[in-house]
Amino acid sequence: MIFVTKADGGVSYVSPEWTSFTGQAAPEAAEHGWFACMHPEDHETARTFLRDAHHQQSEFSLRARLRRADGSYAWVMIGAVPSYGPPGNTFLGYLGSLTEISPSRSEPLTAYGTLTRFVPPPMNPATPPGSTLEAVADYLLIAHGLIEQDHAQEMLPVLREALFTAGKLLARNMTAPDHRDRIH
Questions:
Q1: Looking at domain 2-175, what is its CATH homologous superfamily?
Q2: Which residue in 27, 63, 65, 73 is a FRET match for 45, CA 20 to 30 A apart?
């Protein structure tokens, strides 16, 4: 599932898979409304961590539980990379993804986050991308993580520009008539 945030941290776009997964309509997820789907025990950890990530304008990964449409909770990995644009390389917000995960039995089952790095887990077949553009954004986020692991730093500016463009196009596509249930 793909999401976009504004510079102030409020969610401006969620892919249609969000509504299928959580049962929450996209307009209800706007800004910080998506927190209503967060497990109560993970809420404060997530809010504090995301505030710190936003303040530092850092890549991040956050593991937490989200309520599914059927009322059960699933562990998810939420992660994003910052987007910058004109004027003067201004912080514009984040382009990120959210993927259902199965925590290993050896890990403690707690919510936690890490700054400075986001390597998305493989896409979950239960929540495939809803459009070609969302699939491209998912693959760009995965490529971003792989490039950093391989130390191919000279490719990062080009990839970050592609991530910025994907976020811009996702936001623009939300205004099309057949996308009324999405937010921007």
A1: PAS domain (3.30.450.20)
A2: 27
